[in-house]
Write a structure and sequence with these properties.
It is a single chain. The protein is of the alpha/beta class. It has a single domain, classed as NAD(P)-binding Rossmann-like Domain (Rossmann fold, 3-Layer(aba) Sandwich), CATH 3.40.50.720. 46% of the residues lie in helices and 14% in strands. It contains eight helices and seven strands. It has a seven-stranded parallel sheet with strand order 3-2-1-4-5-6-7, sandwiched between helices. Strand 1, helix 1 and strand 2 form a beta-alpha-beta unit. Helix 1 packs across helix 8 and helix 6 crosses helix 7. The radius of gyration is 18 Å and the shape is globular. Bound molecules: nicotinamide-adenine-dinucleotide. Nicotinamide-adenine-dinucleotide (NAD) binds next to helix 1, strand 2 and helix 6.
């Protein structure tokens, strides 16, 4: 007997989807989710090996190596998207880096700029390229990955938290701007997701505060209502729901998928 699909069984046949940073972690799960729902999927990532593997594993997927913090690279990517998919109906702005873990006096301006450029400015670049295609199609859907750190305070991670709060301002304002054109814009705010990144972040925090990674993970989860991490498929399924006919009345919203995070450690 074949294994059941972990993805929501919505029909997105004919939809053309771009997922930034779609070759690892949450983005990869989102890309595979859209593909399982019949959409044509284009992924980009700066990790060349991960892009190659993702395209090898998913024969019908399109993709390229692109740094989405670079506006010229994003423009070139959307030219390729137009050649290969003919346009964009759904954009998932997933790319995001953790940024520095440090007190305000220790943050370097290069690290600050890199965090804002990847986590926030990239979303402007990709939306600017996608919206003309959505206008031609008469509708569209944009999903921006924020974080529970874009809803709560996060000491020692101020650049990341500020960028992720910025994503919410971008989402709500763009939703109001594009609503009359039937282009919906929403944000997903994941909690602690069971990924390599979660383990990287907890390892760095452990070093910063002189603790062990195990203690930091337990500490992070001690203030989560359900005391567990979220799976990447939980995030992917929320994106699929928002993109489907069932999410057609939802725009300008920030949806937490976090098993109940009300405090960041
Ligand atoms: N993992 C979590 O616990 C968590 C929690 C809340 C929010 N998020 C958000 O979800 C999104 C995905 O997170 P993840 O955990 O899958 O991260 P990840 O670190 O596992 O993967 C991120 C991917 O982004 C790519 N990338 C980095 N900079 C890029 C750039 N400039 N251009 C293109 N690709 C780039 C990396 O190569 C990597 O493949 C991010 O926006 C992140 O902030 C994650």
């Amino acid at each position: 007997m074949s294994e059941a699909s972990p993805f929501l069984p919505v029909n997105l046949t004919g939809k053309r989807v771009v997922v930034t940073a779609g070759a690892n972690g949450i983005g990869k799960s989102i890309s595979e989710g859209y593909q399982s729902c019949g959409a044509s999927v284009f992924v980009c990532d700066i990790d060349e090996a991960a892009v190659s593997n993702t395209l090898l594993e998913n024969a019908n997927m399109h993709g390229c190596v692109t740094d989405v913090s670079n506006v010229d690279a994003v423009n070139a990517m959307f030219n390729q998207v137009e050649r290969e998919l003919g346009g964009v109906d759904i954009l998932v702005n997933n790319a995001g880096i953790a940024g520095p873990t440090a007190g305000i006096t220790e943050i370097l301006s290069d690290e600050l700029h890199a965090t804002f450029a990847t986590d926030l400015e990239s979303m402007f670049h990709c939306a600017r390229c996608s919206v003309p295609f959505m206008r031609s199609a008469g509708e569209g859907c944009i999903i921006n990955l924020s974080s529970v750190a874009g809803r709560l305070s996060f000491a020692l991670r101020t650049p990341y938290s500020a960028a992720k709060w910025g994503v919410i301002g971008f989402t709500k304002s763009l939703a109001l701007e594009l609503g009359p054109e039937k282009i919906r814009v929403n944000a997903i705010q994941p909690g602690h997701v069971n990924t390599e990144r979660f383990r990287r972040v907890t390892a760095i925090k452990a070093k910063a505060v002189g603790s062990t990674q195990k203690e930091i993970e337990a500490d992070f989860l001690s203030v989560v209502a359900m005391r567990e991490t979220v799976e990447t498929t939980d995030i992917a399924n929320t994106a699929l729901f928002l993109s489907s006919e069932y999410g057609a009345a939802i725009t300008g919203q920030a949806i937490s998928v976090c098993k109940g995070v009300e405090m960041m450690r």
